[in-house]
From TrEMBL:
Protein name (database record): Cold-inducible protein YdjO-related protein
Pfam families: YdjO
Superkingdom of origin organism: Bacteria
Species lineage: Bacteria, Bacillati, Bacillota, Bacilli, Bacillales
Originating species: Cohnella hashimotonis
InterPro entries reported in the protein's UniProt record: YdjO
Length: 64
């Protein structure tokens, strides 16, 4: 299922957003660490929400 399959639907998603007004970085909560620091400027981050397309979780097949 892709965002195109969903008709381009956006879902309210929990994120961590950089507090610095000069930095535009953000991370989905599911990819954040416990003591999340900005991946770009290493500043503090704030937990908030953002409308984003759903993620597609792909399972890699194991080669034998």
């Amino acid at each position: 299922m892709t965002s195109q399959d969903e008709g381009g639907k956006l879902f309210l998603t929990k994120i961590w957003k950089c507090k610095s007004p000069d930095c535009k970085a953000w991370v989905r909560e599911e990819f954040a660490t416990e003591e999340q620091k900005c991946p770009m400027c290493k500043g503090d981050m704030l937990r908030t929400m953002k409308h984003l397309p759903a993620l597609v979780k792909k399972v890699k097949s194991r080669s034998r």
